[in-house]
Structures are given as structure tokens and as C-alpha cells.
Write a structure and sequence with these properties.
272 residues; Jelly Rolls; 3-stranded antiparallel beta sheet; alpha+beta; Arc Repressor Mutant, subunit A
Length: 272
């Protein structure tokens, strides 16, 4: 099945379109083939050239955008909703988010360049060429592969880069704590105490870095855990409620419906 407007892919020369047309509407992934582009954030001006991967996050304003006359690039547009639906791994997604926020231009070479080029070619084939009966699902799988490959590139850079910003370090520690405890702990205060800060400050950090409060991050991680457990039909709903430390089945059902949009029973009915 296909959902209109969740994902688009263009080539600047063939389609006579440019990425800035879609900034702040989509997460924009730009693979530069030739020429040069220039843009700025509030803190810094960036230049991108051939074999650079550029990522514009929806929450980061891009300013003073310009292109050389010979600029040529593919650019993949992913809606926030589609990215949220098919994001395969939350911690690396956020590590990448923090890194890309300050370093939106990623040089590619060797195997990294070949892999990302191939990911874009596959996205082009699925989105612009022959449609698939399960279009969203097929494109979602390709998006997951592209994300894994991008994070692999970014992880290489993260190994060389120290994040000096104290708020970013707290944010990342919060995410690692979430990965460890989200199955049973769903209160902001639990995590703020682990980080030795007050809940208000933790939520402020999360809002400043990601645009989302700490409570929403907790719900997002918990929702992923719920999906994983509910997909295991060997576990009863009572088993899952107990494993996730819900005080009652009714509270479990209400919480699941809040973060998943459907009740646990309905979620299982919709599993293929």
C-alpha cells in the first residue's frame, strides 16, 4: 500500500527541482554528485561538494541556501511521520540526530560512498519506477537500510569527535537509560534522579536538543518495547503487563492505546 507524500525522491538536473523547496516540510537527505551547495544554520556556514551526504533535519532551520550552476544531486525526502514509523533503532537515531545537528555535511569515500550511492539508487527504483503492492513497507525497509548505513558512517565520525556540550551528553545518557529501563520505568523523575538533575531541567534539555519533551521520549521508547512484546504471540497480555510493571490490566490497556493508537488486542489483530 502507498501513502501519498510520505516520501519523495528527485534529481536536481532531471526534475529541475532543488532541496530548499522542501526544507522544514521533510527530513532532506542530499547526495551531491557535482558542483557545490552552500547553506547556513544559526551557528555556522557549510559547503558541500561532490560525494558529500547532506542531511537537513526538519527542526533545524537552514538559511542562505545557494547552488553553483553545475550543481547536481539526488535528494530523498522523508516525512516525520514515515521516519517515526520505520525508524529501526532509537539510540543510534538520536546519536545521529545530535551529531547531524552540528555536522550536517558528511564526506563519503570508498566503500561508504558506494553503499550510500546504492541505497539512493534502490530508493529511486522503488519510489519513482515500478510501484510495489506493499509500497510503503518496501520503501520503509529501504529507509531502514539507508539509516543503518548512514549511522555506520556517522559512528566512524563519532569515534573521533567529543561532544563538549553538557546538555548533549545528558541527553545521550538519558537515551541510554531509556534503552535500559523503559520496559518498567515511565516517569521523568526516575530518569532525572539517575542523572542527578531535576525533571524540569531534563525536559528542557530534551526540548532544546530534539524539540520533544522527556515524557514524549519515554513514551516513544515504551511504544517500541510494546510493539516488540505484542508481536510475540507466545506472550499473553497479562504476561506483558506484568513484565512491563503495569499495576493493572486496565492501566496497561489505556497506556498502550495512548502510545500505539490502538488497544493491545487491536494491535495484535492487525499483525500479519
Amino acid at each position: 500500500m502507498e501513502t501519498e507524500g510520505f516520501y519523495l525522491i528527485y534529481t536536481t538536473r532531471t526534475d529541475n527541482l532543488f532541496p530548499d523547496t522542501y526544507r522544514n516540510q521533510y527530513h532532506v537527505h542530499i547526495l551531491v554528485h557535482a558542483g557545490e551547495m552552500r547553506f547556513a544554520t544559526k551557528r555556522k556556514t557549510f559547503n558541500a561538494h561532490a560525494n558529500d551526504l547532506v542531511i537537513w533535519q526538519m527542526t533545524t532551520p537552514m538559511l542562505n541556501i545557494s547552488y553553483s550552476d553545475d550543481f547536481d544531486a539526488d535528494f530523498l525526502l522523508i516525512s516525520n511521520e514515515f521516519l517515526g514509523q520505520f525508524n529501526p533503532e532509537m539510540v543510534y537515531a538520536t546519536k545521529g540526530y545530535v551529531f547531524i545537528k552540528s555536522q550536517p555535511v558528511i564526506p563519503l569515500q570508498g566503500d561508504f560512498l558506494e553503499v550510500i550511492n546504492n541505497d539512493f539508487r534502490q530508493c529511486w527504483l522503488r519510489i519513482r519506477k515500478k510501484k510495489h503492492l506493499f509500497q510503503d513497507e518496501a520503501v520503509g525497509c529501504l529507509l531502514q537500510l539507508l539509516l543503518y548505513d548512514m549511522w555506520n558512517v556517522i559512528e566512524e565520525e563519532l569515534d573521533k569527535t567529543e561532544i563538549d556540550d553538557n546538555a548533549s551528553r545528558i541527553f545521550l545518557k538519558f537515551l541510554f537509560l531509556l534503552e535500559e529501563h523503559c520496559k518498567t520505568e515511565r516517569e521523568v523523575q526516575f530518569y532525572s534522579e539517575k542523572l542527578c538533575i531535576v525533571p524540569k531541567y531534563l525536559s528542557e534539555i530534551c526540548r532544546n536538543i530534539s524539540g520533544t519533551p522527556a515524557s514524549a521520549w519515554i513514551e516513544s521508547f515504551t511504544a517500541n518495547e510494546l510493539r516488540h512484546l505484542l508481536s510475540n504471540r507466545q506472550l499473553t497480555l497479562t504476561d506483558i503487563a506484568d513484565e512491563m510493571n503495569f499495576s493493572s490490566m486496565s492501566f496497561f490497556s489505556r497506556y498502550a492505546k495512548k502510545v500505539l493508537g490502538v488497544s493491545p488486542t487491536e494491535f495484535r489483530k492487525n499483525l500479519t
